Structure formats: C-alpha cells, structure tokens
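Researcher: Sequence recovery benchmark, item below. Answer with residues only.
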C-alpha cells in the first residue's frame, strides 16, 4: 500500500463525512451513514489530527486513528502490537514481520505512530485476515484504498496499461 493512496482515501472520507454531519447540524437531513468507531459527539474531522507526514514523506497514523479506521478498540490494537515484544506475537504482528517490519520497530508504533505501509497491512488484516475479528469498517477502508491506490498507481506509471 502506498501512503498517497491511504492518506488520499482518508482525507476524502473525512471530508465527505464532515459535509454530511455539518449538513445535518444545519437542519439539512443527512443520508444514513454507517456507524463509525467513535462516539457520536466526536467530529469525524478529528481523525485528521491522527494523521501526519514526516520529513521523509512517510505518512503516520496514531494507534487511536488506526483503531478508528478499522473499527476496533484502541486498547485491542495496542495490545496486539505490543505482543511484538513478547514470545507469542499475534497474527497481526506476524503479518507485519513477514512484510519486513522488526519486532522492535512494531513495538515503537505506540510511541512514534504507525507508518503508512504498516497501516495498510493493518487495514488488510482486519478486512480479510482477522477471522471473526474482521470488521465491516476495515473491509470498507480496504475496498476504497484498493480502488484509489490502483488509480494513483496508473497515474504514476504512464508506461503501464
């Protein structure tokens, strides 16, 4: 997953949901939306504060933001990632390690944020590979990322097609 695809999708989703919520607050009826993993009183715009891009151009997301994106509890994701420090890593941590992340690096996600490439793996895990812990929210994020990433990839490689 590339950072452009993930961050572009997130910004588009946030903008869309914000317009729906702000329209509803102004008395304009909002169309039904899927329940998101955050309290009703919390603005969807607040997830933007969970995303950053460092000096090297790597997008990062907080644990809280990643948990909200895939529709799981923040403490569950934190506990799963911290298993990289122990003798029995979770399936998610094993998947991250298989994709080139070190156990030490994964355990730093809670402090330094989750890099965009790891976020894409987390989204994929909770969309496809988590078994009974797969969430509809993660499936939606995964589907939307896949389509935006393909478009970005085609635009970036003019020789492809």
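Model:
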């Amino acid at each position: 997953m590339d950072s452009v695809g993930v961050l572009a999708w997130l910004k588009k989703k946030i903008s869309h949901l914000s317009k729906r919520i702000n329209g509803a607050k102004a008395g304009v009826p909002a169309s039904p939306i899927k329940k998101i993993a955050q309290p009703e009183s919390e603005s969807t715009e607040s997830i933007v504060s969970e995303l950053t891009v460092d000096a090297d151009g790597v997008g990062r997301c907080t644990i809280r933001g990643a948990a909200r994106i895939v529709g799981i509890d923040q403490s569950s994701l934190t506990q799963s990632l911290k298993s990289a420090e122990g003798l029995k890593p979770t399936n998610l941590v094993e998947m991250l390690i298989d994709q080139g992340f070190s156990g030490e690096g994964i355990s730093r996600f809670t402090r330094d944020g989750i890099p965009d490439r790891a976020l894409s793996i987390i989204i994929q895990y909770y969309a496809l590979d988590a078994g009974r812990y797969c969430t509809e929210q993660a499936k939606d994020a995964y589907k939307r990322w896949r389509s935006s990433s393909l478009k970005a990839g085609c635009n970036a490689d003019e020789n492809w097609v």
